[in-house]
């Protein structure tokens, strides 16, 4: 079964083709970062318009790269949420139109389920059950995963997501957009000079809070001459505090569930410092750690094609309505039998 996957939840247009037995056949991605950098962040209206401009050419390129035609496609998977409503509608309307024209089923995919299952595209995928840490610009959550669609939310951010905190802190440091990768790069020049708090680690539970770290960053920055080294030291301290907070919560989640497998996915999972802290922790706990490859940490069509393929194989698909849900709790998903 060949599945065409479409991802348009935010500022990246991703298209991929996945085969149920052969694996990933083709994957193409277009990023809007250069356009949004002029505004210091994603402009929803511009994102939607750029998806309209790029999606059809990328679908044609993906079919060409895989040496397939529309006649070979057995189903279409598209990101239906969470995300920017306008951006989601571009992918949803395109997917539903193609599915009707090609006379194949279409299935709506949860964006975070796509991220959660991205490590399944690797040669050594995780085995169920496992704990998943999903960290991106819009989400930070810990989920117990018993099977595809069988998700128990263990904890989530009560305010800013980790990626959002990275971006806002980078803005304070005048690093530009996208802030997260630039802050991480600057932190490599930093030294152990400031100590930032590890929010909500001194109390039980698995929820997160990162807004306080932004305030602490601002106050610390005001107390310096704001030289490049000052900013590098602050970036180092902020990144270390975030990485250790995530690690403490993951360790707690593994012990609470009794599981020995941790999956970490989402755009922030590409951060080297966070990876290093989690690798050290899981080694000490005797647990396995799984990441998607770097190109599949950020938004992409491959993860949507894979997730959609599993649901289509289980007989799930949408009717002719166009389904888009900008806010969509992951624990409301149907289980894949």
TrEMBL record:
It comes from Methylomarinum roseum. Residues 24-306 form the Gcp-like domain. It catalyses: L-threonylcarbamoyladenylate + adenosine(37) in tRNA = N(6)-L-threonylcarbamoyladenosine(37) in tRNA + AMP + H(+). Binds 1 Fe(2+) ion per subunit. GO terms for molecular function: iron ion binding; tRNA N(6)-L-threonylcarbamoyladenine synthase activity. It is found in: Cytoplasm. This is tRNA N6-adenosine threonylcarbamoyltransferase. GO terms for cellular component: cytoplasm.
């Amino acid at each position: 079964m060949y599945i065409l996957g479409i991802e348009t939840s935010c500022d990246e247009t991703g298209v991929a083709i996945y085969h149920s037995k052969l694996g990933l056949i083709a994957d193409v991605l277009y990023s809007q970062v250069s356009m949004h950098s002029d505004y210091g962040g994603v402009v929803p209206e511009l994102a939607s318009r750029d998806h309209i401009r790029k999606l059809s050419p990328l679908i044609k390129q993906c079919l060409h790269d895989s040496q397939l035609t529309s006649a070979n496609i057995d189903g279409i998977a598209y990101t239906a949420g969470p995300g920017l409503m306008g951006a989601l509608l571009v992918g949803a309307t395109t997917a539903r139109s193609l599915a009707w024209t090609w006379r194949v089923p279409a299935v709506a995919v949860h964006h975070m389920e796509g991220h959660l299952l991205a490590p399944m595209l690797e040669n050594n995928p995780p085995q169920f059950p496992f704990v998943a840490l999903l960290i991106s610009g819009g989400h930070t959550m810990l989920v117990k995963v018993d099977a595809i669609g069988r998700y128990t939310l263990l904890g989530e951010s009560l305010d800013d997501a980790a990626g959002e905190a990275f971006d806002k802190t980078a803005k304070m440091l005048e690093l530009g957009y996208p802030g997260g990768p630039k802050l991480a790069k600057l932190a490599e020049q930093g030294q152990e000079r400031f100590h930032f708090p590890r929010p909500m680690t001194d109390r039980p539970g698995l929820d997160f809070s990162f807004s306080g770290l932004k305030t602490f960053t601002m106050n610390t920055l005001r107390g310096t001459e704001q030289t490049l080294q000052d900013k590098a030291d602050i970036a180092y301290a902020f990144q270390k505090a975030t990485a250790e907070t995530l690690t403490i919560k993951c360790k707690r989640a593994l012990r609470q569930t009794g599981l020995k497998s941790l999956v970490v996915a989402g755009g922030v999972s590409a951060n080297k410092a966070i990876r290093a802290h989690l690798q050290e922790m899981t080694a000490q706990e005797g647990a396995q750690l799984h990441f998607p490859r770097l190109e599949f940490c950020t938004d992409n069509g491959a993860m949507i094609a894979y997730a959609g393929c599993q649901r289509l194989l289980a007989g799930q698909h949408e009717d002719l309505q166009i389904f888009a849900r900008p806010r969509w709790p992951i624990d409301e998903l149907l289980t894949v039998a």
